Structure formats: C-alpha cells, structure tokens
C-alpha cells in the first residue's frame, strides 16, 4: 500500500477574521516586493497570533509576499497586518528598488557571457 503525501489544509479562520474585517491598510499599502524587518522595540503581550508569526519571520529582511506565503494568507491580509505592526513601531520597511535603479539585465548577461568565455 502506498502512502499518500500530506496535503496542506486550508485555514479554518477566514481572512476577514484575521484582519478584524479590514480590507485595506491605514495609509499607503506596502508593495508586495517591499522589504520588512523587526524594529528594536519590545513586543507587547497582547498581539494576536498572526502578528506574532509575522514578527518571528521578520528577523531579517523579508518581502511582503514572503510574509504572506509564511502565513498562508493572501498578500492583502499580510499588508493589513504589516500596516498594524508598522503603525505600532514594531517593524521597519524598505521600499522596493525603483525600476530605473535596477541593474540592466542585458548588461549582466553580457558580463556573464564574457566570464564564461574566459574560462
């Protein structure tokens, strides 16, 4: 008899319960590629479990999309919860790098090709 692989279960808690009915962030929502990390503040004991889970994953820089994946929730839910943490001073954010400042991929490919040909 073959064993069935473990299938992840969907959370029984609906996203609107986690965000307390809020569908939008207070202020400007964080872009999915924005990076967040914990601040040097003490965490209050009265945080809900999802906030605590986020803080556990934000020890280093992590994107909003990665936070959502770790929580198993849609990115919009992560944005609302991260907005709470930011407003409370528990996380810091770093905006995504604007496209004009990103490395030119064609130039990087040329450099890689040149390095490979010199080997």
Question: Your description of this structure?
Answer:
There is one protein chain. This protein has 119 residues and is mainly alpha-helical. The chain has a single domain (15-117), classed as Arc Repressor Mutant, subunit A. The protein has 5 helices and 3 strands, in the order αβαβααβα. The chain has a 3-stranded antiparallel sheet. Helix 3 (64-71) packs across helix 4 (75-87). The longest helix is centred in the C-terminal third of the chain and has 13 residues, at 75-87.
Query: What is the averaged pLDDT score?
Result: 78
The rough form would be described as extended
Number of strand elements: 3
Task: Note the run of SSEs as H and E.
Answer: HEHEHHEH
CATH topology: Arc Repressor Mutant, subunit A
Neighbour order of strands in the largest sheet: 2-1-3
Could you tell me the radius of gyration in angstroms?
19 Å
Beta-strand percent range: 5-15%
Summed up:
This is DUF742 domain-containing protein. The chain has 119 residues and is mainly α.
Structural key phrases:
Arc Repressor Mutant, subunit A; mainly alpha
